[in-house]
């Protein structure tokens, strides 16, 4: 069941994500096509500093072509890997989801970017249904296992 639906037209999705990251107690697993929001990267780092398990999978091509993403993650303690799509080199890992404590999924069109927050019409669903969370968790585990740290692709 969908617990909540958010639209950038009405609310700050970054603020909603940040609140939920702060309320998380055990783990954060995120598969994100794009990341250039310093605010959300800092929220992930804060989770790491508070002892939570944090894992991040990013699209390889977007990471390599986005200096802001590389700068935001440089020197941070956020464990991350890079992934490609199903067809390899030029295909995309286009997911935009995060699993919180293995119990909640946040997903939708929203990229964790300044553009998504300030310019675009975007959406995000918050889902707490175990029958939905489980396939997302399985997808994340497969992505994590198939991806590699920077420099090992």
Number of helices: 6
Mean pLDDT: 96
**Sheet with the most strands: spatial strand order:** 1-7-6-5-2-3-4
Characterize the largest beta sheet: strand count, sense, and whether it forms a barrel: 7 strands, mixed
Q: Rg from C-alpha positions?
A: 14 Å
Query: What's the CATH architecture name?
Result: 2-Layer Sandwich
Which CATH class is shown?
Alpha Beta
SSE string: EHEHEHHEEEHEH
Report strand %: 15-25%
Summarize the structure.
This protein has helices at 13-23, 38-49, 60-65, 67-73, 114-118, 130-146; strands spanning 2-7, 27-32, 53-59, 80-83, 96-100, 104-107, 123-127. It is α/β, with parallel strands linked by helices. The protein has one domain (2-146): Endonuclease, Chain A, CATH 3.30.870.10.
What are the defining features of this structure?
alpha/beta, Endonuclease, Chain A, 7-stranded mixed sheet, 6 helices, 38% helix
Describe the structure.
- With 153 residues, this protein is of the alpha/beta class.
- It has one domain: 2-Layer Sandwich (Endonuclease, Chain A).
- Helices cover 38% and strands 24% of the residues.
- The chain contains 6 helices and 7 strands.
- It has a 7-stranded mixed sheet with strand order 1-7-6-5-2-3-4, sandwiched between helices.
- Helix 1 packs parallel to helix 2.
- The chain is globular.
- The protein starts with a strand and ends in a 7-residue tail after the last helix.
Topology of this protein?
Blueprint: E1 2-7, H1 13-23, E2 27-32, H2 38-49, E3 53-59, H3 60-65, H4 67-73, E4 80-83, E5 96-100, E6 104-107, H5 114-118, E7 123-127, H6 130-146
Parallel strand pairs: 2-3, 3-4
Antiparallel strand pairs: 1-7, 2-5, 5-6, 6-7
Helix pairs in contact: 1-2
């Amino acid at each position: 069941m969908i617990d909540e639906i958010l639209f950038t037209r009405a609310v700050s999705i970054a603020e909603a994500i940040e609140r939920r990251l702060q309320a998380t107690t055990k783990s954060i697993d995120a598969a994100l096509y794009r990341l250039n929001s310093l605010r959300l990267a800092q929220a992930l780092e804060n989770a790491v500093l508070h002892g939570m398990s944090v894992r991040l999978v990013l699209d390889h091509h977007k990471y390599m072509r986005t200096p802001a993403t590389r700068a935001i993650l440089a020197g941070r303690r956020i464990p991350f890997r890079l992934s490609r799509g199903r067809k390899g080199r030029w295909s995309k890992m286009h997911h935009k989801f995060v699993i919180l404590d293995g119990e909640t999924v946040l997903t939708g069109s929203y990229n964790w970017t300044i553009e998504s927050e300030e310019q675009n019409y975007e959406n995000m669903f918050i889902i707490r249904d175990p029958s939905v969370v489980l396939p997302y968790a399985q997808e994340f585990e497969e992505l994590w296992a198939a991806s590699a740290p920077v420099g090992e692709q």
